[in-house]
Every structure is written in C-alpha cells, then in structure tokens.
Amino acid sequence: MRVTTEVRAATRDRILAVAAERFTQDSWETTTTRDIAAAAGIANGTLFNYFASREAIVAALIEETMPDAAKQYRRRRPGDEPLDEELFSLEWTALKSLRRYRNFLAPALETVFSPLATPAREDPGAGLRKTHLETVAHILTDHGIPQPLPAVLLQLYWTLHLGVLAYWAADSSPHQEDAMALLDRSVKLFTASLTGGDGGPHIERKPE
User: Fold this and answer.
1) Is the residue at 203 inside a domain?
2) How far apart are CA 55 and CA 72, in angstroms?
3) Are 119 and 62 within one domain?
C-alpha cells in the first residue's frame, strides 16, 4: 500500500506530539523509541523511517518552534539596535519559544549537541546549528562585521549559545532571570571578541 504525502506528514506530526508528551510526563532518560512508537500506534521499525533516534526527534521539536520564533524576532527588530542587543533579542526569543519543552531539554541537549558525545554518523543538531549560525551571520553583516567569521569565533559563539541554552533549561529562578543575566554577559563577551571593545554599556534586563 502506497503511503501518501498527507499520511506521512500526519504520522510524523503524531510521533512528535507523542514524543513531547512522553518526554514531559515520564522523562527523557526513561522514554525509548519503542515507547514512542507504541504510543503513536506504529511499529518501532516504522518510527525509524521518520527519525533515526530520540535525538533526531528532539531536534525536530526544536526546529518546529523556529519559524514562529523568527517571526516574533523580526516583529521586534527595530533595525537600529546595538549588535549585542540584537543578538540578545534573537537568543531570548528562541528560548521563549522552547518553554514548553524545558523540563526535558536539559538532559536531551547533552546528546543532541554536546561536543563530548560519542561520535556518530548521525548529527541531529547539524541542521539547527547551520540555520542558527546563518541567522547570526546575517545580523553581523548588517552591523558591518565581515563574513565569514574565523572558525574560532564561530566556535566561541556556538559554545556560548549552548551554554546559555543548557543553563536556561535547568534555571530555577522565577522568570529565568539568572539565564537572562548569563545571556547578557555571553552576548557582550562575543561582541567584545569581534570589536575589541566591551560590547556596549550594560543594560538591565527585566523578566518577560
């Protein structure tokens, strides 16, 4: 029986919805692909036709939040912000779009993006990394920073990005203001590495 595009899309959406629910209600550590497949009403082998691993499922969940986050970011972008302010806005908007996944993102990120993870042929975070860094490159270009950046600066940015993301996912402060402060310091460190300056004056952040 030929599986139509519509059926494939519906099955993929069902897998993602079920996985998010299981990761939230049970935990990332205890939920297996077999659990997800059973809850989605498909064979375990069928699930692998859509996603190669749990990490690939989480990467897809994150990726699905990106269009709405990008839309919100563009709406809030006045076009005359200092570079550190614009990078802060980009990052914080993306984090807010992931709030519903916070309770399982921290442990999942260790294997989705961690440079310390066991090397494997699959790199579920590759697409997310590429898309995010391309967005950052456009912002830097708008601010007169020549592209492409040296590899060491790209690595610095990505390391800071992952550090903030991991801290935010586990941040117990009432409105994640501790993560907000870390993000503020991180973008200033990165912009200082580009300009040789201090990245602009410190701006007090208010939880949203």
Assistant:
1) no
2) 26
3) yes
Query: CA 114, CA 53: separation in Å to the nearest integer?
Result: 15
Buried b (16+ CB within 10 A) or exposed e, 92-129: bbbbebbeebeebbbbbbebbbeeeeeeeeeebbeebb
pLDDT mean by block of 10 residues, the chain; 208 residues: 83 96 92 96 95 92 91 81 92 93 87 61 76 92 92 92 92 92 96 70 48
CATH code, domain carrying 128: 1.10.357
3 state SS of 125: coil
Give the CATH number of the domain where residue 22 resides: 1.10.10.60
pLDDT for 112 equals: 82
